[in-house]
Request: fold
Amino acid sequence: MRTDDENKRIYVRQSWLGDLMICPQRANLALTMPMFRSGSDATAIGTGVHSAIEWALGGHEDHTAINTDEMIEVAQTQVASELEKPVKLTRISDKPETIPLAVGAMITGWVDEIAPQVEWGGKIEHRFQYPTGHLAVNGYEIWMEGTMDYITPNGVIWDWKTASRAYNESEKQKKAHQPTVYCAAAVSTGLAEGPEQIFRFGVMVRQQSPKPQVVQVTRTRAHYDFLHRQAKAAVDQAVISSGQRDWFMNDQHVLCSSTWCDYWSICKGSHIP
Ligand code: SF4
Reply:
């Protein structure tokens, strides 16, 4: 969440809403202690694979023009460069020799199974902002913002995921809020006709053999309305609680750990290492 005092707007990203749903304190510290945010080896791998997909989509006529070996090389270089940055190490780095194999398998899966389902010629890394129509408790307009990995000329949104395991499609259809934010953005900004809108996760499971997956989610006006109500409630609470050191601390979530919470050392970990 960020505030634009000049235009009296508050911008919300889906990742901040996601933090809030995991643990309100995590969302609070993301605003007040941004210097503690850091990536992990998992996110470094994801960033490198994303760069290779951008290279493929931006520099080729269609998926048949991609040389898989060349794309794997691009991905390996990008991943290696991301891993040189200071990142948190997870179990992935216990066996660093498996990372290049996993990257190769993910790219092979993307080229063979996912890319043929992608309509070429769309917008890569498309940044968006749109108004939710709600005012926060302080009178500021609430806007959503973010970056879509890819939106096709026909308005289908794709998001590339490198994941430790396959996605559950019905769970994503029921609960995932990223597709709701991005679909609402596409409709609001005229990139899709809507209001019903398609969002696809192009999932590459991080393992030694290719395991690609296309997970399709649909969103409607009802989803957008609930999302915007959620965003207003979240922003109002944030505005009211602004300046308080602590918001509610949910230490029951699986991500409340030294590995998966950037703020562990100044939160639970400062009491119970
Ligand atoms: S350490 Fe746990 S309780 Fe504290 S911010 Fe992180 S997830 Fe929340």
